[in-house]
């Protein structure tokens, strides 16, 4: 009787240990994953401020740049020949890097943007370009959506030099988000 009780108890303990291992395997990692969909100055500032702040808290910070968010990573000094008409049109219409992005509200043909940048400078707030550099220094990883680049007629050759930048699809973001303690959409 006592032997049966002991065997039953050992089986239950083994089952509990197995369940604990399964739960630990599914637990999120100490990382932040962020979708950056917007290409507007105020939202990009928020995204990079959060990313830089999170880099001090989490083991990893991954920003997935898609559609309008990809344009902030363009390097205005790089020019790429574009044979397709739509790619040429997007090239002319889309901002090239951090200096060309507009405010989401009250841009007023660039006057609001200039005013915002002036106030930020007076208050000692880092510019978007400085925040991007700081994110690179802190190891923030940036994943650029390949489909978005293709649809918008952009190429990897015109992206800024950033140490932790990769091209991937939505599956990469979903994989990262699935492992993350925190996931944001900006």
From TrEMBL:
InterPro entries: DsrE2-like, DsrEFH-like. PANTHER family: CONSERVED WITHIN P. AEROPHILUM, PEROXIREDOXIN FAMILY PROTEIN. This is NADH dehydrogenase FAD-containing subunit. It comes from Oceanidesulfovibrio marinus.
């Amino acid at each position: 009787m006592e032997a049966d009780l002991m065997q039953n108890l050992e089986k239950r303990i083994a089952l509990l240990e197995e369940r604990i291992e399964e739960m630990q395997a599914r637990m999120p990692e100490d990382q932040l994953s962020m979708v950056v969909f917007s290409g507007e100055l105020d939202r990009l500032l928020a995204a990079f401020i959060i990313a830089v702040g999170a880099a001090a808290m989490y083991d990893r910070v991954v920003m997935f740049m898609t559609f309008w968010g990809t344009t902030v990573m363009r390097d205005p000094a790089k020019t790429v020949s574009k044979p397709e008409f739509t790619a040429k049109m997007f090239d002319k219409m889309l901002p090239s890097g951090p200096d060309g992005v507009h405010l989401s509200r009250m841009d007023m043909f660039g006057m609001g943007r200039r005013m915002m940048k002036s106030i930020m400078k007076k208050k000692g707030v880092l510019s978007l370009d400085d925040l991007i550099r700081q994110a690179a220094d802190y190891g923030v990883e940036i994943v650029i959506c390949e489909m978005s680049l293709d649809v918008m007629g952009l190429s990897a050759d015109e992206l800024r030099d950033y140490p932790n930048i990769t091209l991937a699809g939505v599956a990469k973001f979903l994989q990262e988000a699935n492992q993350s303690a925190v996931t944001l959409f900006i």
